[in-house]
Amino acid sequence: MVKEKVVKTATKKKQPSKPATKRTPAKKKGKKKELKEMPAWVRYLLGVLIVVVFSSAFYFFFIRPYAYRWKPCYGLKGYGVCMPAGYKVHGIDISHYQGKINWKMLEMARQGQFPVHFMFMKATEGGDYADKNFIANFDSAKAHGFIRGAYHFYNPKTDANKQADFFIRSVQLEPGDLPPVLDIEQKGKDMKKLQDDLKLWLRKVEAHYGVKPIIYASYKFKTRYLNDSVFNSYPYWIAHYYVDSVRYQGDWKFWQHTDVGTLPGIKEQVDLNIFNGGKEGLDAMRIKEK
Fold first, then answer.
1. Residue pLDDT tens, the chain, 290 long
2. b/e string for 194-217 if b means 16 or more Cβ within 10 A?
């Protein structure tokens, strides 16, 4: 009986778990106490820094690029935006992203304070992608009295010859249409190869249609990657949003000044453009009878 009591006592002494768990919360309380002892001015300063960093990042990425949208319009508004001052020839560009267009309603845009004279339509992309709405849009534009043009969205990963041939097969330009457009927005991996390939596309398309193609590119893209005398010899269509005026120093023919225009007959927002000149200058660019 004595032995049994000894065994039981020893067994009870071998349970160390309870004291260990009691020590843990004591440490946590110590940490909380340390945090509470942080000076109030330090906590305040940290809070201010967090707010400043967050606000600065939000402004830089989400507000600054589009600040022009919220600036007061001191000129005239049209199609839901502040229109560039001093230009009389307006146009739009469309693709399948605008969906099915009510052309009878859109024809209303040919009248009013900012009549739409011309429109460019996406025809092709890369070596085998055709915009599903191009044919319907291209035919309807002419039927409703708009001066029309077609553009090709260039893919640096696809052979330039293949892209030129695909555009030529897909787009039947007629006298009275605007010259074909090369839309270049992607730089690829090798700048020299990109420039050589673009020159190939331009030469081949010019030889087929008998007119110099128009180059569409953003202000920054043109300055960084197409700053070459060969490219400067082609009519330039500049994409430069949310600014009062074009900052590009070279010669240009078209300016895509916003991507948030609203027009009758089109449910989605539309890119708005102006021509750098009068109606006579635009007519002079149109393809002539051979």
1. 444 444 444 444 455 555 554 555 545 555 555 555 778 888 888 888 888 888 777 766 555 555 555 566 767 899 999 999 999 999 999 999 999 999 999 999 999 899 999 999 999 999 999 999 999 999 999 999 999 999 999 999 999 999 999 999 999 999 999 999 999 999 988 999 999 999 999 999 999 999 999 999 999 999 999 988 999 999 999 999 988 888 788 899 999 999 999 999 999 999 999 999 999 999 999 999 87
2. bbebbeebbebbbebbebebbbbb
Coil/strand/helix, residue 163: helix
Catalytic residue among 128, 185, 190, 251: 185
Q: What sign has the CA pseudo-torsion 175, 284, 257, 205?
A: positive
Q: What residues form DSSP beta bridges with 124?
A: 130, 152
Cα separation, 84 vs 255, in Å, equals: 10
Reply yes or no on whether 93 is catalytic: yes
Q: What DSSP designation does 236 have?
A: E
Q: Are strands 147-153 and 116-125 parallel, antiparallel or unpaired?
A: parallel
Note the pTM of the prediction, 2 decimals: 0.77
The residue among 233, 252, 247, 237 whose CA lies nearest residue 91 is 237
Amino acid at 156: P
Neighbours of 36 (CB within 10 A): 8
DSSP 24-82: HHHHHHHHHHHHHTS-HHHHHHHHHHHHHHHHHHHIIIIIGGGGGGGS---S-EETTEE
Q: Which residues fall within 8 angstroms of residue 100, CB to CB, at 6 or more apart? A: 133
Q: Is 283 a catalytic residue?
A: no
- Candidates 93, 125, 183, 271; catalytic one: 93
Residues 84-285: name the CATH superfamily: Glycosidases (3.20.20.80)
